[in-house]
Every structure is written in structure tokens, then in C-alpha cells.
Fold these 4 entries.
Entry 1:
Amino acid sequence: MKKVILLEDNLKVAEEFIDQLIEWKEKEKRDIKIDKMLFYEDTLNAEEVKELEGVRSICNKGIDVEWVNVISFDYVMDNLYSDPDNLFIFDTYLLSDESFVFKYRVNVGYALQKINDKRIWFYTNAGADIKDSIDRIFGDMVIETELEEGRHMLRFMDNKEFVQKVG
């Protein structure tokens, strides 16, 4: 069974995407588990993160929420990446990652080290410049998004690489 892990810095968007993944899993009878949400936040500590309403709401869906920041990111990812059944969907533009050089952003840099494994997908809601950057670097490992009636939609089911990897 493949396990999907989402990296996001916006709890509302994360919850919308998790709901879509759960709905797709049930509708398409996919043998996947939406296993974990990595909440990227550099301004809070672990105890403050646990108290956020969005974290409690996601946990109530049976999804583990783990707080990561620039210091813990590689360590947490190395542990999760060691399981070959884990697949990752990353928000490209983590707001508290202030790297000015795109390739130096913590999530992009990590994914570039693992690019040949084809287990990390990216998406962005941050605009055309960021979208062009991830398309240029990650190509078919980019999942389209759109805003539909005020709700963020992650078009993972339209990404052939993702659907094939899920099985």
C-alpha cells in the first residue's frame, strides 16, 4: 500500500487537499493511505502548532500532522523517505522559507537530491513565475491546481505519473 504525505504551510489548503485525496481514494477504490501532513512553519514551536484549530481538524480525519521547519526538514524527510512506499506532494512556495534562490528552498533542494526516484510531486498556488520554475525543473512531477468556487483543487488524478505510482 502506498502512503501519501502532504507538505503544506497553509492548514486550510492542506485540509481541502486531504479531503480530495480521501474522496478520490474511496471513489476510485485506490489502495493508498493519506498518512501524514507535514506542516511547515518557522515562527511557531511544536506546542503552539498542536493548538491550532486546523491541526486538530486534520487529526480528526485520522491524519498525523507533524510540524517541520528549516532545521528539522531534512531529518524528518530522510526518515520518511526511507520507506519506499511513501509518496510526497509538496507545496512549492512555503511562505516562511525566505530563500531568494529558488533551488535553495528547503523543499526544492531536497527534491532535487531525489529527482530520479520520482516520488515527490509539486504544486503551487503562488502564481505563474513559481509555476514556470517548477515546470522547468520537475516537469511531469508537477500537479496542477485551480481555484473552484473558493476551494483549492489539486488535480492529482490528472497527473499520469502520480496515478501510475499510486497503482
Entry 2:
Amino acid sequence: MKRPAVVLCLLALMIGCEGIPFKKSLDESYSSVDPSMVRERFQASIPERFLLLNTLVFEYNWKTFSGIGFVDVDTAERTCNLVSINQMGVKLFELSIDKDSINTLFALPEFTAKGNFGKMAGEDIKRVYFDLVPSKEAEINRKKFSVIFRQQEGEGIAEYVFSGPDQYLTEKTYYEKGGPVWRVSFYEYLNRDGKIYPGGTILKNYLYGYRLIIRLKEVSD
């Protein structure tokens, strides 16, 4: 007789863990929006080279790890350097990424004990900062409150969703065999000297079952 109550408690915990700590964009009609202009304006608005200070929350297997991340990104060269420390100043990991490789310069044993942490984390960091603009040849699907671009990427399909009054990228999802492999959601964009940065980012990795929450604190160029 107690099983329904236990199930409800577990569901409540799951819903709590999957909460979104950022504000979603307000709905706005896209009935008269030109998809090609949405794509072009967004491409012109995102920075090519930048330095960010973020807070990071990593949720996996009912556990939460939090820290501070310093990231140096060059989207033209496809390079990224990331250092993460905890609140006590202890280094958690350091990664160096270029177009051909992902190198783990340092990682605590807690991160490396269950496989190639550097490759897994590095691939997800690339998904957050690279390849955010669909190609001109992408299939376009106009919805009531969004424009969706779909295109082939690797062995699967990437879907880019632009929505909200500013017509920014709010979600990118990669599918294989009809199901999502990973999804990156972007919230609360900030404008700094004519370039935009998401104030909040959530990456959901369905393959490994974890979530990374990134909150922007400072921007440098």
C-alpha cells in the first residue's frame, strides 16, 4: 500500500532535479518572420573570441558537483581552454580543446575513475560553444512561436530552435535513430558591446544521463 507514495516521492525528486533555474523566453508570433534573416542576424551577433567566468553545476546519478569555470574560446580556430575549481579554490579539472583533439591536462580521480572523462566533457563543451548556426541548406520548419532548422550532422540529425522576441537560438538537439542523444538549451541572453551571450545554459546528455548547468558571471573579449 505504500508503493504509490514512494513512487510519488521519487517523481517529485526527479522533477526537482530537472528544474530549470532560468527564465524562458516569452512566446512571440513567428508567422511573418523570415527564417533566413533570423539565421543571419544571430550569426552576426555571436562573438568569435571570448573569455568567460561561469558557475557550473554537474548533476549525475543523484549527485551534484558545483564549481567555477574559466573558459577561453576561439570559435574561428575551434579552440577552447577550460579550467574548473571548487569554492575552496581546489582545481577540479583542466581541458584543452582544438579542432583535432581533446586533452585532459588535469582531473581529480573522482572524475576519471569511470572512463575517459576528458573526452566526454570536452565533447559536451564543444556542443555548448561551437556550431551554433545552422547551414543555409538546412530544412526549415516554421512554427507558431519558433523557427526550426534541421540538418544532417554526422550520423544523426541536428535541430536548431530559434524563439522568443529576440529570435535567438534557444535550443539545439542532436538525434540518432529517432531519439535525442544530447540537447543544449540557452536562456537569458546578455548583450555586451553588440555581441550576445547566454546568461544560462543547460546541457542534457541523454546517452550518459547527466546534466550540466552553466550560469554566466563575467565576459571578456
Entry 3:
Amino acid sequence: MANDSYGSAKVGMKTVELRGFTGTVSGVSKSSYTQTHVDHQNRTSSTSTTNYTEFRLNAPDGSLQQLEVESKYARVNDGDVATAFWGNVGGKDRNYYLAVYNHKLGELGIIPSERNRLAGPVGHAFLIIVAVFAGVFGVFGVLGGSFAGMIGVGIAGGVWWIIKQRRKTLLDLVDSGVAQVKSGGRKAPQPMHTGAAIQT
């Protein structure tokens, strides 16, 4: 993927450049994936279904991008104009989309999995688990008058703050990109009038 640049930001130890592609939506199709969870006795314990939307973004110069995104993060219809954003780190484009902005609806969908990968830090999921345990044991320690408990609470708070700040920096960058698109900083194509109804 390559195309327009919407600025960059320092996220932790790395610089993330926000790139995007704007085009008219076509070829919208829906699909779903159902995952069944089986317990140790080979009994179905739960099922979960994820819905996806696949569509193309067609730019005025004839270039296009093909996307498949979880439907709840990309509410689009044929004829809408949308911008897909992704990150570029170390001069290399990421192979996953970070956000989709629908110009017609004014809706921005942030894709959590890519947000978490870009914002980090490395092993952030493990760090969150550590922070939860440190916080729980720390609270009990504080209630018991333990100095170690205070340290645990401090560690938990520090981890949460770092992760929150990294994500905020990244999302501020996306918001800046959306503002550029809305203000005409990147010229968007005119939407096609297909008569397609907006889903609500």
C-alpha cells in the first residue's frame, strides 16, 4: 500500500507515519465467520460470530484498494466515499488497516487489533495481565499496610498510563488525518449516486 501521507507521530520508541487512500466505495459484500469453542470434554461451550464487510475503494486516477474489515468498524455502502488509513513504520507499510472513515456518514471506525499493535508496547497484552495482577495484589497489600502493595499499585498504574498515552497519541494522529480529509487537504472524489440505502 502507498498513497497520501497524513503526518507522523512518535509512539513510544518508534515513529508512525499515517497513510491513507480515499476512493468511492463499490462491490460491497458481507460475510461471517463463526468460531466454536469446545471444552476438555469435547462439549460445545460457546460460539462467537464475526461479521465482515468486503469492498473496493476506487480513486479518480483508476487506482483502487480492496478491503475486508469487521463490519462494525466500516459501515459503508456502494457509492459512499471513504478513506482507509494504515500505519507506516520504519519506511514500511503495515499490511493491516488501522481505521476507516466514511465521508458521507461522518463515521470513523478504529480497528482495535491494529491500534494495539501499532501503539504497543511489545507484549502489551501480557503487560496488561501483569498490571491487573499487580493492581489486585497491590490493593490487598495496601489494605494490609504493606509497602510492597503500594509498589504493586504503582506498577499497575504506570503500565496503564503508558498504554493509554501511546493509544491516545496514535488516535490523535488519526483524528488529524480525518480533519485533513474533511478540510480538503486531500481531495476526495465525488460520491456516485447509486440509490443505495444507508444501513442503520
Entry 4:
Amino acid sequence: MLTVHFDTQDIARLQLILSSIPGNSKKIQRQLQRELIKSAKKIIPPEASKVYWIKQARVRKAITTSGMNVILRGTRQNLADFHVSPSRPGKRRKNGLKAAVMRRGGMKAIRHGFLIHGRGSGKILAMVRTGKGRTDYEPLTSPAIPQMMENEEVQSAVTERLKQSAIDSLHILAGRLLAGR
């Protein structure tokens, strides 16, 4: 769960701005909450793709809103959706497949790993052989998108950018209200 905490200096700045606007602080708080939800949907995908080898579009699809909450939903992703080598099926390697989920740390060799075209969809999937039979293989999966957001690096980056976005939005909203718009 991602929770944004403001320190005392941030709260003092917010109270100073809100105190200059008599009677409209509730209105600004509601507008600020809406702005934060919009900005969270824009901030989370790029921050996640800075830490993980995941496309921003996949993270964007996993984000939904419900009232004043941002909800991340998703199941485990196939490893082929991340950084794999070889990138196409058919190219066999002596030591199998290499893959990386996080950007730092490099690629790890997966023994008996290979790529196939999925049945019906034609999507490329990463698999690992589990036995000697023709169909003895199972998919290689990575963490789900909500699990990725629990990473300390992602959370700290998102909370810092959300704090800055909140302060910027508050200045804009207060300026609009004082100007009579």
C-alpha cells in the first residue's frame, strides 16, 4: 500500500496557503485530492519503468481509481514481457535463456529456459523445461505489478513526486480561487 506522508514543513506551507483563503479550504481540499489522483496515474508508470524492465503501458492498464483511491490490480507477468535474450523464439542458446526483471543487477541465466509463440494469441512466452517429455514445461513468471509498487525505490520516488505535485497543485488552485475563477 502506498501512502503519502507530509512532513511538518510541508503542512505548515499548506496551512499558510489555505489560511489566506477564507471559507474555501474544503473546496480546495477536494480539488487537490482530485488533482493528486490524476497526477498519481501519471507518475506511477514512469517511476516503475525506471526500476523494472516493464513497459509503462502495462502499468497504466493496471491502475484504476475508485473514489479517492488509486488501485493497482494485476496478476503475475510472463518473463518474456521483460528483458530477455534471445528476444524471439527459435534462437537456441547453449546455456538457455537469460532474463532480467529489474534494471539493476544484470541478466540471469535460466537453465532449460526457452521462448515459444503462445497458442492462439501468438504472444511470445518464456517457459522452462520441467521434464524429458514433449509437453513437460511451465511458464516463467515475474512479480505482479502491485508487488512491484511495494519496492522501496519505487515508493520513495512516487511519494516525493506526489508531494511536489500536491504543493504545485495547491499553489495553482489557490491562485485560481483568489483570482475569482
